[in-house]
Design goal:
mainly alpha, Helix Hairpins, 3 helices, about 65% helix, rod-shaped
Length: about 110
């Protein structure tokens, strides 16, 4: 924009939120998800390192998944607000918006 503003692709932002949710699902598979990889490795030392990684990862996974949940929630909420704002502006420009209700006085009178 030439006026110094910015644009937000709320569809892509919503997709990011979904990808983070999907990533969390992958993390929920746990240490057992590495078993096929560990079995395929022929080097004993590397297998031991992978097992250590899987064990350490399991210990830290809860903190990471909580952060993923939080970031995914923020991304989805932001995408929703940007979409609603964009649609509201569009509807207002097209004359489709409803006029706001008149404000009532604190005393209940006109």
């Amino acid at each position: 924009m030439s006026d110094g503003g910015y644009t937000v692709d709320y569809v892509t932002l919503g997709d990011l939120a979904q990808q983070l949710v999907n990533l969390r699902g992958e993390l929920d598979k746990g240490a057992g998800a590495l078993d096929p990889l560990i079995a395929a490795v022929g080097h004993d030392g590397l297998r031991a390192k992978l097992r250590d990684f899987a064990t350490n990862w399991s210990d830290r996974k809860d903190a990471v998944t909580k952060q993923l949940d939080s970031v995914a929630g923020f991304a989805k909420a932001a995408a929703d607000v940007y979409r609603q704002t964009d649609e509201g502006i569009r509807d207002g420009i097209n004359g489709q918006g409803s006029s706001p209700a008149p404000a009532s006085s604190p005393t209940g009178g006109p």
